[in-house]
Amino acid sequence: MKFQKSSFIFVAALAVLLIAAVSFSGCLGDSSHDDHDGHDHGDPNASYDPLDNESVGQVVNGSKILVAASVVPQTEFIEKVGGDNVIAISMIPPGAGHTYDPSPRQLEDLSKADLYMQLGSGEPFETNNMKAFAEMNLNMTVINSSAGITLIQSGSSTDPHIWTSPKCAIVMVENTYKGLAALDFANASYYRANADAYIKELEALDAELTAELSDLKTRNFMVYHPAWAYFARDYNLTEISVEVDGKEPAPKDIVKFIDIAKENNISVIFVQEQVSITGATAIAEGFGGEVFVIDPLAKNYVENMRYVGQVLAEEMS
Ligand SMILES: [Zn+2]
């Protein structure tokens, strides 16, 4: 299957569509949560898996569309919609944080990308890099994944973690469809069918989570890094983050969070893999609870979110 480089008319039409800010069901609530002024620490050894020679060849000869995104779950959305026609890369590798700096090899791959699915949610990585990315690759169409999502205000910025709510993921998948269909109109019906099938899965996941998280003993949960504000908003929960301005909590904060945990019947602090958990462990010890790992950046999105829902429901019941 030969990918035809897009006609600008369709790209322009798409831009108009996105600017029209279509409103989608769900993911439109509004609430304020913990500040997200800080940046998570991330794993300093996180590494990007570069495109292999075969993939580079397919991108260069136009038989595959190279779609870049900022975080790993987006690559799942892109592959679900694009199927065999796309190769997806995440610019923030698994385990890296919001202030990750892309490597020269990543920039080399990105220079061949046809499309960038920008989170568009105030992600610091994008604030730091998108302008340079666009200037480096003038052939790359940039599409805003969060068009149609009401962003959560966080301090002076917005909370970037839109993907952790399946309701938001549905909107992101729809935007991914629009990006691919505009770029490769000849295959639009293929992308539509793929998107519809995946959205069905996400809707089923959403229904499951809604049911599972409806009747709980407490609606408050404690996390180290505040990656779950959209999830919390869309399932009527409250995220309490113990990370303070992107840093480990100070001793006085640890005392405060121990009290908050006790007051709210909290038994667990959720942390993410590869992030320092010293402060979280100290707090958990203080209220006699435990630290439990959940991953906001896993690739197998539906399975992972189902798991997260089960863990939260169990701990909050
Ligand atoms: Zn984060």
Account of the 3D structure:
The chain folds into 2 domains: 8-210, Nitrogenase molybdenum iron protein domain (Rossmann fold), CATH 3.40.50; 215-316, Rossmann fold (3-Layer(aba) Sandwich). Strand 9, helix 10 (278-286) and strand 10 form a beta-alpha-beta unit. Helices cover 44% and strands 12% of the residues. It is built from 11 helices and 10 strands. It has helices at 8-19, 53-60, 72-82, 104-110, 124-136, 166-183, 188-212, 229-234, 251-263, 278-286, 301-316, and strands spanning 65-69, 86-90, 115-118, 141-144, 153-154, 157-158, 220-223, 238-241, 268-271, 290-293. Helix 6 runs antiparallel to helix 7 (188-212). The strands form 3 sheets. Strands 2-1-3-4 form a 4-stranded parallel β-sheet, with helices on both faces. By secondary structure, the protein is of the alpha/beta class. The model is unreliable at 5-26 and 28-41 (pLDDT under 50). The site of zinc ion has 5 residues, from loops.
Task: Write a concise synopsis of the structure shown.
This protein is 44% helix and 12% strand. It has eleven helices and ten strands.
List the SSEs and their pairings.
Elements: H1 8-19, H2 53-60, E1 65-69, H3 72-82, E2 86-90, H4 104-110, E3 115-118, H5 124-136, E4 141-144, E5 153-154, E6 157-158, H6 166-183, H7 188-212, E7 220-223, H8 229-234, E8 238-241, H9 251-263, E9 268-271, H10 278-286, E10 290-293, H11 301-316
Helix pairs in contact: 1-6, 3-6, 3-7, 6-7, 7-11, 9-10
The structure holds zinc ion (ZN).
